[in-house]
């Protein structure tokens, strides 16, 4: 719900000096060895001073972006506007996971780790906030 994780395979032996990564609140840019890997406007907004990138084993770049909108309904369908879109199955799985994370936060005493979700989960799932007693209670 809070972060966007990006992994980019780069040529073996890449050094950190050969990586130029600009992480803005609305855009991102990555160049490796002078070659543009991607550049563009992010699907959503992020907290730029909380974004990080690391180079692992001189062949894999990890980028972590912190979303400004951390609601379950804010499931990015792509990294950049119109580019690197998740296919329908992956998008469905991401929305299911975010909905379960939301339920876990709203109901800290319950374990949703093995739960399956179906029905209305797109956009973060159903909104129970209008109910008088919006917590789940066992044994009733």
UniProtKB/TrEMBL annotation:
InterPro entries: CS_dom (IPR007052), HSP20-like_chaperone (IPR008978), NudC_fam (IPR037898). GO terms for cellular component: cytoplasm. GO terms for biological process: protein folding. GO terms for molecular function: unfolded protein binding. Signal peptide: none annotated. Pfam families: CS. It comes from the Eukaryota. Residues 1-80 form the CS domain. PANTHER family: NUCLEAR MOVEMENT PROTEIN NUDC, NUDC DOMAIN-CONTAINING PROTEIN 2. This is CS domain-containing protein. It comes from Mugilogobius chulae (yellowstripe goby).
């Amino acid at each position: 719900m809070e972060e966007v994780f990006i992994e980019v395979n780069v040529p073996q032996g890449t050094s950190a000096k050969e990586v130029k990564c600009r992480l803005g609140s609305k855009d991102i840019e990555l160049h490796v060895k002078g070659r543009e890997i991607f550049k563009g406007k992010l699907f959503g907004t992020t907290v730029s001073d909380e974004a990080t990138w690391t180079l692992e084993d001189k062949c894999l770049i990890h980028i972590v972006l912190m979303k400004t909108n951390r609601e379950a309904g804010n499931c990015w369908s792509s990294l950049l506007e119109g580019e690197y879109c998740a296919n329908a199955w992956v998008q469905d799985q991401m929305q299911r996971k975010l909905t379960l994370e939301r339920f876990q936060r709203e109901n800290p005493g319950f374990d949703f780790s093995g739960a399956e979700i179906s029905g209305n989960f797109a956009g973060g799932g159903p909104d129970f906030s209008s109910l008088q007693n919006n917590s789940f209670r066992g044994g009733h």
